Amino acid sequence: MDDLRDLLAYAAARAAGYRQSVAEGSVFPDGVDLDAARAALGPLPSGPAPAAAVIRQLADIVEPVLVATTGPRYFGFVIGGALDAATAADVLTACWDQNAFNAVTSPAAALVEDVTGGWLKDVLGLPSAASFGFVTGGQGANTVCLAAARHHVLAEAGWDVERDGLRGAPAIRVAASAERHATIDRAMRLLGLGAGTIEPVATDARGAIDVADLERILASGPAGPAIVCLQAGNVNTGAFDDLATATAIAHQRAAWVHVDGAFGLWAAASAATRHLVAGIEGADSWAADGHKWLNVPYDSGYAFSAHPHAHAAAMSYAAAYLTGQGEGGPRAPGDYVLESSRRARGFATWAALRQLGRSGVAGLIERCCTLARRFAEQLGAADGVTVVNDVVLNQVLVSFGDDQETSRVIDAVQRSGECWMGATSWHGQRLMRISVSSWRTTEADVDRSVAAILAARSASTTS
Ligand SMILES: Cc1ncc(COP(=O)(O)O)c(C=O)c1O
To answer: Is the bond into 2 cis (omega within 30 degrees of 0)?
Structure first.
């Protein structure tokens, strides 16, 4: 017993030490020698080792190679910083090791997901009757939601896709933003609909869909089962599709409306940004992430649907040895997700929402948006630096001149260790892509990062 306490205390101490000092070190591992780390990990051992030695060895080898995504100056991709309560809840989740399939395998996990799903719908402004599944992330959420959509539109056409598959099924038309996230395409592949069948809807200068083009596409093709994929938060610019108008157009045509709001759906949590998602409640399904802007540790996402029956019909399965499905008590979480045996993801999300409360979530969203604007103002004021997007959310796109120069600056910033921003190509231009998504980022972190970027630029122009 003492050994176990010592082991967990040691792991907690290492974890806390890492998190407390993460702001001080290089944001990307400095002079990282992956070959040395690989050698230290070694070949498969021939026999056992004491648990304490195993954990010490793992931490010693891995810590120097970690990326400081939990620190305050990581602005790559859309990566949140992992709140303290959510992180600690995830530690408990691992220790409790519940199988969150249903209320028989884990009443606690089923109950907490049940309560937390209600909280999520509330804070995101989704209908209270919507179904939900705690999935692995945006990819999982888009896939689950599109499976529910596939079920629903084919059932409306008199076809049982779960029983009969797609051979001989009525064709499903799928219209989606030309700037959709690539996980929509992968979901289409996995669901047998084919990424190549997507009818791309033109986008405007902000990266939001042209609703007139959506109307034209839907009017021009054959009637029948149809799905429209909208976006709340363009992955480059943060732009929002006009959800209310697009949903009205799609519903006139009886199409299912799916909204990919991996990070942008969180705009609903703040009065300052809620207008961006006006009309959100009218859609048929929604995808959102916990591990991005809610700052829940990986992996955590949510799939919601206004059609609980379609959601469960697409996802659930039965077997003689499985009990606890549809027998009263908390809902069975496994009926709404892709996995069978699964991690109890509800605990960490409950802890994040409990730590922040409604006002704390709003504050997190507002702070990140304010800091994104601070980036834009300071960088945009520098000679030869252009912010190319309208900063409506937490995303900032920056050009330093031509594509080569921009790539050089990004490379130098990434090597500086001061902060980390990624690169993207958008509307024919190579750009630095800044995403402010962490609860830990302060004004001082933005100022320090801007100084690092401008220093990298000066170095690049003088070399
Ligand atoms: C708009 C959008 N959709 C989906 C995803 C995929 O999310 P995940 O990486 O959590 O699967 C992302 C990730 O950046 C995203 O920005």
So the answer is: no
For residue 262 and ligand 1, the question of a CB distance below 6 A is answered with yes
- Which amino acid, one-letter code, is at 209? I
Do 184 and 93 lie in one domain? The reply is: yes
Judge if the beta carbon of residue 145 lies within 6 A of ligand 1. no
Q: Whose CA is nearest to atom 6 of ligand 1?
A: 138
Pick the residue whose CA is nearest to atom 9 on ligand 1.
138
Task: Show the DSSP H helices in 22-73 as ranges.
Answer: 34-41, 51-62
Distance 139 CA to ligand 1 centre (A): 6
pTM, full prediction: 0.97
Same domain assignment for residues 187 and 46: no
Pair (119, 209) in one structural domain: yes
Same domain, 40 and 150: no
Q: Residue 250 and residue 46: Cα distance in Å, rounded? A: 61
Nearest CA to ligand 1 atom 8: 138
Cα separation of 104 and 392, whole Å?
45
Domain that holds residue 117: 89-351
Ligand 1: atom nearest CA of 142 is 4
Please give the tally of structural domains in the chain.
2
Q: What is the pLDDT of residues 295-347, one digit of tens each?
A: 999 999 999 999 999 999 999 998 888 876 656 678 999 999 999 999 999 99
139 lines ligand 1 (CB under 6 A): yes
**Could you tell me if 106 and 139 lie in one domain?**
yes
The pLDDT of residue 155 is above 60: yes
Q: What is the pLDDT of residues 68-81, one digit of tens each?
A: 999 999 999 999 99
Beta bridge partners of residue 201, listed in sequence order: 177
Is any ligand 1 atom within 6 A of the Cβ of residue 138? yes
Any domain includes 389: no
